[in-house]
Amino acid sequence: SKSSQNRRLEKMLLSNNMLQNKKIVKASSISEKDKNEISSIISYFNSNHSLKDIKYLPGDFKIEDMEKTFGFQYSKPYSSPQNYFHFNTMQMGDPIEISGYNYMFDSRYRYDEKEPTSSFNMRYDYNSNILKIYQNKDVLYTKDMNEFSKKLIDKYGLRDKDEAINPNEMCFEDENSKVKVKIQIINVSGTKDSSTGNIKTNGTDFYILIKVK
Question: What is the pLDDT of residue 40?
Answer without folding.
Answer: 85
